[in-house]
Amino acid sequence: MCEVMRARVRGLLRKVCTASAERPRDAGMVTSEYAMGLIAAVGFASLLYKVLTSGQVMAALQGIVEKALDVQF
Questions:
Q1: So what's the pLDDT on residue 71?
Q2: pLDDT-derived band of residue 44, with 50, 70 and 90 as boundaries?
Q3: With contact defined as beta carbons under 8 Å apart, do 29 and 37 qualify?
Q4: pLDDT surpassing 80 at residue 57
Q5: Any stretches that span the bilayer, and where are they (predicted)?
Q6: Using one digit for the tens of pLDDT, what is the confidence trace for 27-40?
């Protein structure tokens, strides 16, 4: 019984290894994916820049820095 199970497992492993070796490998992104990723990153960076340079956020950040610098030791 044990030998039969081992033989079946070996056969299945052989099939899986052979099938995975026959498949073409897709390693990395193509140029269009790089372009879309770059566009998304630039869009996010510009949005983040707009938010961080807005008046309310600048005032909040300035308040945090001033409060941190006024700490008594």
A1: 79
A2: very high
A3: yes
A4: yes
A5: 34-52
A6: 666 788 889 999 99
| Cα atoms in the Cβ-side hemisphere of radius 13 Å centred on 53 | 6
DSSP secondary structure, 17-69, as one string = HHHHHHSPP--S--HHHHHHHHHHHHHHHHHHHHHHTSHHHHHHHHHHHHHHH
Q: Which residue bears the tokens 């990395």?
A: 28
* Domains of the chain, residue spans: 2-69
Written as one letter, the residue type at 70 is D
Q: How many residues are listed for the chain in this entry?
A: 73
Cα–Cα distance measured from residue 62 to residue 32, given in angstroms and rounded to the nearest whole number: 41
| 3-state SS class at 71 | coil
Residue 27 phi, psi dihedral angles, 5° rounding? -100, 110
